[in-house]
Amino acid sequence: MKPVGFATASVTSRHGRLSNQDCAGYLHLDRVACWVVADGLGAYNGGEVAARLAVEQIMASCETRPQLTVEALKAHLEAAQSAIRARQAAQPELAAMRTTVALLVSDYQAALCAHLGDSRCYQFRGGEVCFQTRDHSVPQALVNAGDLAPEAVRFHEDRNRLLRALGEEAELKPTLSGPLDLAPGDAFLLCTDGFWEYVLEEDMQQALARADTPKSWLKAMEEKLIARVAHLEKNGADNYTAITIFLQGPLG
Asked: Does residue 87 belong to any structural domain of this protein?
C-alpha cells in the first residue's frame, strides 16, 4: 500500500532584484510525484527563460515518463537541456543563459533526486536533516577537498562560481541521489541559493518542529530569511524560491 500522498507548498520571489529569474513547479500524478526548482543565470532575461524552460520541460517529461528510474530522471534533464540549447541557437542574445536545477521524483514508495549547480534538495526525518545534495560550486569543491569548512560555503567570495548547469555546451553531468527511502513524517525542501544562503539548516529544523503543514513550515522559514536579509544586506538580496513537502499517510 502506498502513502496517502504528499502535501506541497511553494514560494518564489524576486526579493531585492528587478526581475525573478527563479522558477518552480510540481506535479502529483497517479504513478509519480515530481518537484523541481531552477535558478536562471545569464544575460538580461536569459536566466528567467532558462529556468522556465527547465521547469516546463522537466514536468512535461515526467508526465510522459512517469517512472522512478535513473533513466527517466536523465531523460527529464536531457529534455530541459535540449529545449534550452535550441532556444540559445534560435535567439543568439540568449546564448549565455544557464540555469541550476534540483529535481525530486517519487513513486510514493521511494524517491530519487538529481541536481546541477547550487539549487538544493534536503530530506528531513525525525525533524532533522538526513540527506542533502552537495553543490556543484567552487566553495563546495573546496569543502570536498578538506580546504574549507562546510559552514563557510554560504558567504564565500566565490559562492556564485558554479561548476555545472543546464545550458552548457559540455555533456550533462548531474548528480543523481537515491533511491531515498520514505518514512511516515518525512519532509523535503527544495530551494535555490537565494533561500538557503539565509536560512540555515538549524533554522529549517526549528521551523519544521513547530509546523503542522508544509505551508506553515515554509512561511516560518521565509520570515527568517526576510529578517536575516534586512539585518545583513544593505541593497536587498537575490531571488529566492522554495518547495516544502510533507509525506502523508502510512507506508505498507
From this structure: yes
